[in-house]
């Protein structure tokens, strides 16, 4: 992509809010950086999202509000479109609290020699880079649709779906590698943090609550029934989770979904209980091999919230 002529398209639209923000866009070869700033603050910059990703840095001070994003193409729900004249990477800056949208796009001139990749049956084990879109979604009780409320009573179940769209990839299995509940939309030293999933897929919350992974309907999705916990009751709570897509034929102790079975006092592997030995490290430290990992676009940190847990 080094020889591409970079054209930058930046369209700013706002619907119910009159947008006065200044936006600086820097399109790189494989990523984009965006700076959003507003002198007269109307929007909380901590609640802004570039696609599905929160800001890497945000601030509010006497000079105004600012949010800075850095994202690789293929992550954060950045879409790739191929046209006759160019290759377009596009998404939007939105807010989780306001009806506002700032469409952002990087347009690269398509090289004359470029052609769509052809399927080669001899290369089916070659893992593509990019082309994955990760999602973390709050669902209704039976997972038939999106949740209609973000408020949950203490002890009730919070249904969560994590999924990956596999655009041109071989079949992948999705894991929740790590999840934390915090009181802030951005992880910081000031955040109150409650671990939910740690140690590469160990649902540590299942040792003291009824939180459970649910049986899979498809490899590209994992469902979690999270028991509403006594953490920051009545406050806004945000879930930060690392989603990882992986080769389903290469599971190890670093790529797994494990939960604690109180009846047997053992950790159990969600996808194949006969291989629950992969979970034996959940109380110590889990490390696995890195072979066959998809090195680009294989993981993303997604944020869900704010949620409120009431007594």
TrEMBL record:
Transmembrane segments: none
PROSITE patterns: ZP_2 (PS51034)
Organism domain of life: Eukaryota
Domain ZP intervals: 26-265
Family matches, as Pfam families: Zona_pellucida
Keywords: Disulfide bond, Signal
GTP-binding found in the keyword field: no
Keyword Transferase (UniProt): no
Secretion signal, residue range per the UniProt entry: 1-21
PANTHER family: SI:CH211-14A17.6-RELATED (PTHR11576:SF3), ZONA PELLUCIDA SPERM-BINDING PROTEIN 3 (PTHR11576)
Protein name per its UniProtKB record: Zona pellucida glycoprotein 3f, tandem duplicate 1 precursor
Species this protein is from: Danio rerio (Zebrafish)
Lineage: Eukaryota, Metazoa, Chordata, Craniata, Vertebrata
